[in-house]
User: What shape does this take?
Amino acid sequence: MPKMENAGKLRQIPIDQIIENGNVRTDYADIEELAASIKAVGQLEPVLVKSLGKNKQTQLEEFDLVAGFRRRRAFQYLKDKGDGFTMIDAVVVSGDKLTLQLVENLQRSDLSPRDREAGIYQLNKAGVSNKEIAARLSKSEPFVSRNLAAYKVRASIAQAAAAEIKKLEADAVAWGENPPPGALDGLERAREWLKDINELSTQALCEIQGIKKDALIPISKRLIAGGGTVACARQLVRDYNAPKKEPAPKKTESEESAEPDVSVDGGNIDPLMTESAIADGSDAGEGEPSETEPKAPPAKKTPTQAPVRVLEEPPHKKVDLNSVQKVIQSYIDKVGDLESGYCYEYKTNAAYEIWSFLLAELAGL
Assistant: This one.
């Protein structure tokens, strides 16, 4: 397993003796701005290098640049302009170069969730344990596990998006310069989908990691359409796990023929007919009451209002908020077992709002 050694002592090394042999980072924007900052306030952070031993021709020690590519290029920019800066502060380290580069990049504050997940995955793939990764990043082991899980979900969705883009690009090449109207709209939507996938948060992806692969693609599109929030991801998971209502079995011809036929006049039953008339199929008259049953005036429908429920006074005692949250969660789970669709959504959203209001009230005390 690659071992990450502690950094050595600070040294000043000529930049000409530091060699760039590739880096896991490919973005080197704003070199001129960084150079101006170094010229104004000096070098704030040293670069990391590994010794390559002496060059056989020059007999000078050479170093492989591990981390600090932008800083070294800023120094090279200043030197080429004649501003000096031929020596750069550096720390000589030992250990696996890829591991050292990944750890250094993962400690950057401007790292995107996707790049952070990919870096942790590469470290894990290189044989570095979750415990050691967590220690080097000053994070917890669950933090590392969440990033690894999110990386797999993001990679699975991105792979599907890339395959869709590749297919649509092949279609675009076949169409040539005169594609059918709207033919390229799908390609643009697929590219936008891939871009949105790359911007999803780690936590939102962790929420949907339990969804099966065949449902993951449509779920990801609904998540993006819903803003990519953690709350949206949780709602999608609840909908996905909600029990599906089985459709009523279709009746056979024998079952349908066995049912009594009470239709009169093409299936419309005259409300003025008596039960006996309905039974034998006779007509009691068009709009006229039968001799045995006088016409009765239609009863007036009065609107009924649901009874108002009154909240009971709760017992005055200290309650653990965790217990309250468990009660609300058990209610949501119970609703999920009994209902689905909009009714489920309304009730569960109401429960979550009650919890939010409770926390807001407590925060204001």
In short: Residues 157 and 297 are 66 Å apart (CA to CA).
